[in-house]
Write a structure and sequence with these properties.
787 residues, alpha/beta, de novo design (two linked rop proteins), Leucine-rich repeat, LRR (right-handed beta-alpha superhelix), 17-stranded mixed sheet, 24 strands, 12% strand, elongated, ion transport, disulfide bond, ion channel, repeat
Length: 787
């Protein structure tokens, strides 16, 4: 007998695959097992028992003789005493009967009656293989294996349970406050218990080190699951091979059902008990016709009708499956009910094979889809990242990264983190927070704990503020720096910062910035004193002029874009500092001459070649610093002498060849930078600058230094490098306050020993070739090397 378990290999699949088998597949599997048992049972009977039994049939010519003998036999028996009954003798032995049975089985018995069990067995195996083919086909089985593995991990993940239990309609801050009140009061005191928010989890975990380690491990596992689900979704949503495979195998089963019903219904009556057999073997055994009995005809007839009923039920189930496949849109799946039930509103809808597998899972248990949806939500992923981030960046670790910035504030800089750790808001001493390339940053109400926070820098960060955090920043923030790629990325809450004094914006605005709503909003910043724009403006927006009543410093770095229509500058009369850097200016804008309060002007990296307009600067009585460096200026006009209030003058990186003596009539000059020009001669009038402390003529073509230079006894920094000097006057000793001297790149052969009289000059601030330094007396070298 053939065990049914031998056919297990046709239907065997991983137990986990059961989640993709809806009720109709399970039902048809059981029907297939029953049909398989019918086929196996029939095949076993065919092998174990005689198939047919035949007896020879007398010839018609002997019939009268047979009847006469029968009559005489009956009369003799009537008068004679009773004796044993005997049948008709055929004079055939057992081998002849076996031969006749075999011949009649092959020739006279209908093929359906002979092969019915085998047909049942074959059709059933085909049904079983077809039902599970998509689990075995390489193109679909790999996707199913990955999906089922991820589904099980997502279902069992502690993060799934935690996320579903913690999502509610309340704000995180409200949940935090309720959580704290729950800790203070017992539930029996009238406080309604609430699930703690994700932000409260680290506080509980810190108290329990064992739990902290466990939760951290769970968090890392969940983080890996999010990445797997994301990549798997991108891969599976590209095609619909699983859907097509399932549709094809269902259509094939329906076609198979119709075929089986059609031919079985017409042939089931061919299974008969008595079979007339006529074979031409009379010369061998003396008989030609036989009457045969099909011993299993009755059983096969019952089995065939039973089989037809099972196939009919199987087929109707397959028809229902086809209706389900074509009536519903199975290539799209909506998580609307999950979003409503869980409150996770950002769970995306899916399509193609991903959607089809989720529809199949819903037929098994909708809870799987609900728990799996947690790993499709960006909100859930961000909360998990936040939890892991809090574990990684503790308050102690962040405190070690605090440094003092250029504004003498305690600053914490965070770069390319997946989010903002909540532990940042435990650093109460923090005064400045700098965030670079951090996405999905949410500032909670707990920022109010940073009472000393005055400066915030956001470099390519997407930021959201809680309402309480917005109110806090409006009342406390003094300095804001924002770097963006598109002006639409600028945070809207920026324009309501009532106490903001300094605003630094770096990024590209729209072409017509004057009509830009973003810049229009700047007029609301009533306390703004400093505005820096590193962008691509073509003209100064009217919105900047609107804040001119309190704006004192304006920095425009235009990245080479030509700035035209500067007349608006005339209205900004309160400016004390103005920078127009890389604005492609060819002349000094006349509008600047109306800024009577201007103290510092920087026109760096423009295309200015002539500065004849410099005479108009005489009206700017308060101008103390003029920077015309990195331009193409060929000469300095004599009108420079009119700028008697100048204290710092920068002409470096130009094309100046001659220094006019009138330049040195600006007797208040303390810093004069003429480096990187083509100057060959320094006028002796330089000695007039008795207040000069910084003088740089490096990278020129100077061959001699006037002795009058050394009469500037307040000089602290003297840069003479990369010239054509060959002699350094001993009068260098007059510069007793000299602390920095650059001589490298000249033609000196020896240094004067009078350098030793410059007591403030140390070897570390004497920039000269090593061999040239060795020409100094050893006592001078020792003196310079001493601390």
């Amino acid at each position: 007998m053939i065990p049914v378990m031998e056919f297990r290999q046709f239907t065997e699949q991983q137990p986990a695959f059961r989640v993709l088998k809806p009720w109709w597949d399970v039902f048809t599997d059981y029907l297939s097992v029953i049909m398989l048992m019918i086929g196996v049972f029939g095949c076993t009977l065919q092998v174990a028992q005689d198939k047919i039994i035949c007896l020879p049939q007398r010839m018609s010519s002997n019939a009268s003789e047979l009847d006469l003998k029968s009559v005489l036999h009956v009369q003799a028996n009537a008068s004679a005493p009773p004796k044993e009954m005997k049948g008709l003798k055929t004079n055939l032995d057992i081998q002849q009967y076996s031969f006749i049975n075999q011949m009649c089985y092959e020739k006279a018995l209908h093929w359906y009656a002979k092969y019915f069990p085998y047909l049942v067995l074959i059709h059933t195996v085909v049904f079983m293989v077809c039902s599970n083919f998509w689990f075995k086909f390489p193109g679909s089985s790999s996707k199913i294996e990955h999906f089922v593995a991820m589904l099980g991990k997502c279902f069992d993940s502690p993060w799934t349970t935690r996320a579903l239990s913690e999502v509610s309609g309340e704000n995180p801050e409200e949940k935090d406050s309720k959580k704290n009140s729950d800790l203070a009061l017992s539930p029996g005191e009238g406080i309604l218990e609430k699930s703690p928010s994700l932000r409260s989890i680290p506080e509980k975990i810190v108290a329990d080190k064992a739990a902290s380690v466990l939760d951290k491990k769970e968090g890392e596992q969940a983080k890996a699951l999010f990445e797997k689900v994301k990549k798997f979704r991108l891969h599976v949503e590209e095609g619909d091979i699983l859907y097509l495979m399932y549709v094809r195998q269902t259509v094939f089963k329906v076609f198979k059902f119709l075929l089986i019903i059609a031919y079985n219904s017409s042939l089931v009556n061919k299974v008969r008990h008595r079979v007339h057999c006529e074979v031409p073997i009379q010369d061998m055994i003396g008989y030609k016709e036989f009457q045969c009995n099909h011993t299993m005809a009755h059983l096969f007839s019952k089995l065939s009708y039973c089989y037809l009923c099972l196939v009919a039920v199987y087929g109707l189930t397959s028809l229902y499956t086809s209706y389900w496949l074509f009536y519903r849109s199975l290539k799209e799946y909506s998580f609307e009910y999950v979003r409503q039930e869980t409150g996770i509103s950002d769970i995306p809808d899916v399509k193609n094979d991903f959607a089809f597998m989720l529809h199949m899972i819903d037929q098994y248990d909708p809870l799987y889809s609900k728990r799996f949806a947690v790993f499709l939500s960006e909100v859930s992923e961000n909360k998990l990242k936040q939890l892991n981030l809090n574990h990684e960046w503790t308050a102690e670790k962040l405190r070690q990264r605090i440094q003092t910035n250029g504004n003498n504030r305690l600053e914490l800089q965070l770069f390319m983190l997946p989010g903002l750790p909540d532990t940042v808001f435990e650093l109460s001493e923090l005064q400045s927070l700098k965030l670079e390339i951090i996405n999905n940053v949410t500032i909670p109400a707990s920022i109010s704990q940073l009472e000393d926070l005055q400066e915030l820098s956001l470099y390519q960060c997407s930021l959201k503020l809680h309402l309480t955090a917005t109110s806090f920043l409006k009342e406390n923030l003094k300095v804001l720096r924002v770097k963006f790629d598109d002006n639409r990325e600028l945070p809207n809450w920026m324009y309501g910062l009532r106490t903001l004094e300094e605003l630094y914006l770096i990024g590209s605005f729209s072409t017509d910035a004057s009509k830009n709503i973003v810049l229009e909003s700047l007029r609301e910043l009533k306390c703004l004193k400093t505005l820096s724009l590193k962008s691509n403006l073509t003209k100064i927006p009217q919105s900047i002029v609107d804040v001119s009543s309190h704006l004192q410093r304006l920095y425009l770095h235009n990245d080479g874009t030509k700035l035209v229509m500067l007349n608006n500058l005339k209205k900004m009369t309160n400016l004390i500092e103005l920078e127009l850097v890389r604005c492609d200016l060819e002349r000094i804008p006349h509008a600047i001459f109306s800024l009577t309060n201007l103290q510092e002007l920087d026109l760096k990296e423009n295309n200015i070649r002539s500065i004849e307009e410099i005479i108009s600067f005489q009206h700017l009585r308060k101008l103390t610093c003029l920077k015309l460096w990195y331009n193409g200026i060929m000469y300095i006009p004599e009108h420079i002498k009119k700028l008697s209030s100048l204290e710092r003058l920068y002409f470096s990186h130009n094309k100046i060849e001659i220094l006019p003596s009138h330049l040195f009539l600006c007797h208040k000059l303390r810093s004069l930078d003429l480096s990187n020009n083509d100057i060959r001669f320094i006028p002796p009038e330089i000695g007039v600058l008795q207040s000069l402390q910084y003088f740089s003529v490096s990278c020129n073509k100077i061959e001699n230094l006037p002795d009058e230079l050394f009469f500037c006894k307040k000089l602290k920094t003297l840069k003479l490098g990369k010239n054509s000097l060959s002699i350094l006057s001993p009068k260098i000793s007059y510069l007793a306050q000299l602390t920095y001297l650059e001589l490298k790149g000249n033609h000196f052969e020896v240094l004067p020993q009078e350098l030793g009289l410059c007591r403030a000059l140390k070897s570390s601030c004497l920039i000269v070739e090593e061999t040239l330094f060795e020409t100094l007396p050893s006592d001078v070298r020792d003196q310079m090397g001493a601390e």
